[in-house]
Amino acid sequence: MTATLNKRRNGAGVAAKRAVGKARRHFRVRKNVSGTAERPRLVVTRSARHITAQIIDDLKGHTLASASTLDSSIRGTEGDKSAQAGKVGALLGERAKAAGISKVVFDRGGNKYAGRIAALAGAAREAGLEF
Questions:
Q1: Are 81 and 118 within 8 A, CB to CB?
Q2: Which PANTHER family does the UniProt record give (predicted)?
Q3: CATH of 34-126, one of 3.30.420.100, 3.10.50.40, 3.40.50.450, 3.40.1350.10
């Protein structure tokens, strides 16, 4: 953890401080959140343009289902980033059902539970995932 934080700390600007804060939050959450075969971890990765969600079994190190705004079914769709995040959540819920997954542990990846993260989580819940 220290090496990663030091790597992000090299920049002296506001963006570097935000990156360090986000990394700290993510490390703090990951100490306690782990996915199992019965209840895998739903991790959300957000960038300025795209959002990715994966359902991971941490014990085996396998990705069980994933969805992203880079998927061909979502890539060309209309709507703002929050609407696209909702579509990613719905698609992930469908893929999770197909894989036989109904309960997950939510890992927001150091992001605040608002905006695109909340839209993705809400759509995944509506699609049948429990967390």
A1: no
A2: 39S RIBOSOMAL PROTEIN L18, MITOCHONDRIAL, LARGE RIBOSOMAL SUBUNIT PROTEIN UL18M
A3: 3.30.420.100
